[in-house]
Automatic annotation (TrEMBL):
Signal peptide: none annotated. Residues 39-175 form the Activator of Hsp90 ATPase homologue 1/2-like C-terminal domain. Belongs to the AHA1 family. The chain crosses the membrane at residues 6-26. It comes from the Bacteria. Keywords: Membrane, Transmembrane, Transmembrane helix. This is Polyketide cyclase.
Length: 346
């Protein structure tokens, strides 16, 4: 009995010492600032922050869990927009609001976590460093914590900073694909032969062999494009701005063959786990390409491909695969809008 009393006294003293140290030496809330720069225009960056449907696609707070369920509330974008979320696997829930917006300059978020009546306030400022670079600054004010919970303030800033680092990586991937698509559409000059240095890509797709009779090849391409697109968008849950234009890779001169083998893939930013053995990843190394944009019937592409091959032969260049990039998704009984790229080397 005496032993229990001694233990109880020690526990009380320890708790008291802990409480006093928290009360006198640890603030009840935290205020800190985090700054980052990203190589994209301020208007494109801001739209990823003030539209909460965009925001939850790349912010690590929401993307790091497969079990999180998010509800969006009108107006969906700008001041007054809101979301609520529940993550049963990680035992967390909350609500988030945009309370203030100054377009392309400032946003204020209010985050209520786990039934806490006091919100975390986050002011985000955006500054155009140049036409293609934006500085983002987060000013964070955490809610007041009770004396016994103030120890959490020791790691709050580190946890927030880690989340921002991961989120910025995701945001770069999202904007990279989106800006690449926008720039590519704006730069199109049809039927003009050009030289282009192509960056490496990682494609997720399917290997195919099929007949080259009449329209059989194009129908097969449409069917397999739909397979790949549905797998990436539905099974893997990827959004349009998270992947690039579909690409078909095949031998440059196999348009003359009775049977054609090709790889139909869609670019992703990184490898992810896949469970369907029908699909595989394929890496495309950086190459120098002769390119031409073409719009018309799929069969009519042959003339454009021949132009690329003749150019390579005239320049005494060896050539490899032909990359057929569909600027608009391939659809049956419709013209194609595509970029044809012939990889060349000495």
């Amino acid at each position: 009995m005496r032993f229990i009393k001694i233990i109880s006294v020690i526990v009380v003293l320890l708790v008291g010492a802990y409480a006093l140290s928290m009360y006198y030496f640890v603030e009840d809330s935290k205020n800190f600032k985090i700054e980052k720069e990203i190589d994209f225009p301020v208007d494109k960056v801001f739209h990823q922050f003030n539209n909460l449907q965009n925001f939850t696609r790349w912010n690590n707070f929401f993307t790091n869990s497969q079990s999180i369920d998010i509800d969006y509330y009108t107006p969906y974008e700008g001041m007054g927009s809101a979301i609520s979320y529940v993550d049963p696997k990680n035992d967390r829930d909350g609500e988030m609001f945009i309370r203030y917006e100054n377009p392309n300059q400032t946003l204020r978020y209010q985050l209520f976590e786990d039934k806490n009546e006091n919100p975390t306030l986050v002011d985000v400022k955006f500054k155009a460093v140049s036409a293609e670079k934006t500085k983002i600054t987060w000013f964070v004010h955490t809610p007041k914590l009770s004396v016994l919970r103030r120890v959490e303030n020791f790691w709050t800033e580190d946890r927030f900073a880690e989340n921002i680092d991961k989120s910025m990586t995701n945001l770069k991937n999202v904007l990279g694909n989106k800006v690449e698509k926008d720039n590519q559409m704006a730069a199109i000059k049809y039927d003009s032969l050009m030289v282009e240095n192509e960056e490496g890509k990682l494609l997720l797709g399917i290997n195919v062999s099929t007949s080259n009779k009449k329209d059989a090849l194009y129908k097969n391409i449409v069917m397999n494009y739909n397979k790949v697109y549905n797998y990436i968008s539905m099974d893997l849950g990827k959004k349009e701005d998270e992947f690039g234009f579909p690409m078909l890779i095949t031998d440059a001169d196999n348009y003359k063959d009775k049977e054609v083998s090709y790889f139909m893939g869609i670019p992703l930013s990184k490898k992810i786990g896949i469970t369907d053995n029908n699909f595989s990843f394929r890496s495309v190394s950086p190459t120098q390409n002769y390119i031409i944009y073409y719009k018309g019937s799929y069969a009519g592409r042959v003339k454009a491909i021949q132009q690329l091959i003749q150019k390579a032969k005239k320049d005494e260049m060896r050539f490899g695969d032909i990359y057929q990039v569909f600027i608009e998704r391939p659809m049956e009984d419709q013209d194609v809008n595509m970029k044809l790229s012939l990889s060349v080397y000495k």
